[in-house]
Amino acid sequence: MAEALTPLEGSVYNYLLDFTAENTYQPSIRDIGKKFQIKSTKTVSDLLQSLARKGYIERDPARSRGVRLLGFTGGSKTKPVPYYGRIHAGEPALLPEHLSGYITMDRRFVPAEEVYFLKVKGESMIGRSITDGDFVMVNPAAKAKENDIIAARIGEEATVKTLTHKNGTVVLEPANPAEREIIIKPSDDFGILGVVCGVFRPFVTMEAQTAQMTS
What is the pTM of this model? Predict the structure, then answer.
């Protein structure tokens, strides 16, 4: 998952998004310095390098405006949120090679910079309005509490369930009477990926449209 941004890095990143949406080109290092009252161009360059290292941008240090906003498709006050098609056993669970794309969201609905999407498989959470094919937004910075809907990792498999505890043992509860609870054993390769903070449900996907056109 993307590394958390500092408050200043988050502000610079959002400025990059908004400036690019409004002007169709990226701000220069001097533009950024002027906006945030940073006199040193090296300090600005270091901020951009940190954003690149944390996976939010790509940059060409040889160019003043050599910044590419990963996943950016335009629109003011928006943010590209990555989604992952696979997870990895152990930590870190989310690897760059498993990134499947981005979903651009209004920033009012994005509670933290490091949120990401996972695609739901199956009907185990239909009782909490999460169905097969939904994209759940996951906040890895939120502390999971009892009865929160969480994304969890068991080995290389991701699952979305309600977090509960019984006799000190973690139990992942489905919201479908046809599904069984998952009791986490001490020997299980288990980890909490984050708290589910939103659901995105596309009624038509590009893949479905392509399949219809070719069938």
Answer: 0.73
